[in-house]
Amino acid sequence: MHTRIVGTEGIAEAVAVLRAGGLVAFPTETVYGLGADATNATACAEIFRVKGRPADNPLILHVSGAADLMALTEGPLPGTAVALTQRFWPGPLTVVVRSNGRIPALVRAGLDTVAVRAPNHPVAQALIRGLRRPVAAPSANRSGRPSPTRAADVLDDLAGRLAIIVDGGMSAAGLESSVVDCTTPQPVLLRPGAIGYERLRETIPTLAMSGSGTLARSPGMKYRHYAPEAPVVWIRSHDERFVRHALAARGPDVVLIAPDGPWAEAGEVKRIIGLGGTLEEAGRRFYAALREADREHPAAIVVVWDATGGMGLAISNRLTKASAEMVVP
Question: Is 220 contained in some domain?
Fold first, then answer.
């Protein structure tokens, strides 16, 4: 199969592919998604096959707004879901609610819940409204790889496995959505994402963080994720002396990924890729930096990161899943 990258002029063609049971890669404000008609079990099974995705990893549904969410929910919509969607939709927030069975069990990984979000991207919204059904869409990459934030990233991973990639430029947020389980008496943040934990708690003060015993109702809670080919070494410190010492122990055949700071000149390395000076910049650049570093074929990719507030928590979560080694003071 030949994979074509099209611009927004290809949206109508992309909708036709979805209606026919095919797959389309498309941009959202978080990362690029690999989409199928969420009500078509055969089409959604193809997502799992193309990505090499485990069957017990549920897919997130993309809808146009709150009315679509209510059509997927068993019983009244939980008050926590109402409050969160009123504040953050459309945007990088996924809510988990009880499923009414409209969505095939394969899409839900056999769970009695469904994970839903309304993306804040004109291309994604145009596809959803054109299809007139929810779009099931995990990230448009091979399972376990860094998520794609550009059309070219999708092509690198999935060329020949789908017909169309709609190019909408680089993703604005660069990290996946925050996922909140609204089915429990105390809502739980299952996956930190582009909306920080602190901001979510402004709306839901009782919001808890997921723990080791939390049921995996969301993507990103199992398996190794977000990892490039080269091993990732996470230096969990911003102390200049410690970073210099840790880098010196690695030798020169490494690529360093770091936010702006004194460690940007921390010693002899193969290459330095900056994450910028703000948490928002770091989130936007993070996956692209991992992919760029991998193209250097280094012995290791060393990431300097210790921020845990806002987007910092989401990046730390991705590093927990992607890193082969953590180095701490």
Answer: no
278 lies in the same domain as 198: no
- The greatest distance separating any two alpha carbons of the chain, rounded to the nearest whole angstrom, comes to 60
Residue 181 identity: D
Say whether 4 sits in a helix, a strand or coil.
Answer: strand
Based on the fold, state whether residues 176 and 35 are members of the same structural domain: yes
CA distance 81 to 187: 9
Domain count of the fold of the chain:
2
Kindly report whether the global pTM for this prediction surpasses the value 0.70: yes
Identify whether 117 is part of a domain. yes
Min mean pLDDT across 108-112, 122-126, 180-184, 225-229 is at 225-229
Q: Specify the DSSP class assigned to residue 99.
A: B
Asked whether residue 50 falls in the same domain as residue 192, the answer is: yes
- What pLDDT is recorded for position 261? 80
Identify the pLDDT of residue 154.
98
Domain harbouring 20, CATH code: 3.90.870.10
Q: Give the domain range for residue 36.
A: 4-209
Q: Which residues of 291-319 are buried (b: 16+ CB within 10 A; e: fewer)?
A: bbbbeeebebbbbbbeeeebbbbbbbbbb
Read off the pLDDT of residues 122-158 as tens digits, 9 standing for 90 and up.
Answer: 999 999 999 999 999 999 999 989 999 999 999 999 9
How far is CA 82 from each of CA 98, 113, 168, rounded to the nearest angstrom?
A: 14, 16, 29
What span, in angstroms and rounded, lies between the C-alpha atoms of 329 and 322? 20
pLDDT in tens, 14-32: 999 999 999 999 999 999 9
SS3 content of the chain, % helix, strand, coil (to 5): 30, 20, 50
Task: Say whether both 187 and 294 belong to one domain.
Answer: no
Same domain, 241 and 199: no
